[in-house]
Amino acid sequence: MNGWKHICSLEDIPVLGARIVRRSGLPDIALFRNGKNQVFALEDQCPHKKGPLSQGIVTADAVTCPLHGWKIRLESGQAAEPDVGCVPHYPVRIETGEIFIHF
Ligand code: FES
After folding, report:
1. What are the CB-based long-range contacts (under 8 Å, 24+) for 31-34?
2. Which positions of the chain have pLDDT values less than 70?
3. For position 2, what pLDDT does the model report?
4. CA distance 41 to 29
């Protein structure tokens, strides 16, 4: 079933960190929080060789894959040049400190 799903509170995601959202029969989603309390949702698989992005280093607008260091844009899921690739990303809504993802 598609639609907005309540996931957690903003405080449940560490600043410059991530939290994993498990989905039955589908790839996990990684929820990232940057230093401005913006939250982004990407599939938890690097477009290079499926490294776990949720374990990467988070900056203001990207996460660095822990396996080979590709930088993936948090907003679009696109790999930063010179690398090429894209991981699915999902809309995020924050309402009174509660996080919802649309998938
Ligand atoms: S698997 Fe992410 S950079 Fe290689």
Report:
1. 31/7, 31/92, 31/99, 31/101, 32/58, 32/63, 32/74, 33/58, 34/58, 34/59, 34/60, 34/61, 34/74
2. 1-2
3. 67
4. 6
- The atom number, within ligand 1, closest to the CA of 83 reads 3
Task: Report whether residue 65 contacts ligand 1, using a CB cutoff of 6 Å.
Answer: yes
Is the CB of residue 73 below 6 angstroms from any atom belonging to ligand 1? no
Domain residue ranges in the chain: 4-97
pLDDT (0 to 100) of residue 92: 98
User: Is the Cβ atom of 47 under 6 angstroms away from ligand 1?
Assistant: no
* Domain 4-97 falls under CATH 3.50.50.60: no
Phi-psi category of 76—alpha, beta or left, where left has phi over 0 and alpha has psi -120 to 50?
alpha
Q: Is the CB of 77 under 6 A from ligand 1?
A: no
What pLDDT, on the 0 to 100 scale, is given for residue 25?
94
Q: Tell me the C-alpha distance between 11 and 32, whole Å.
A: 12
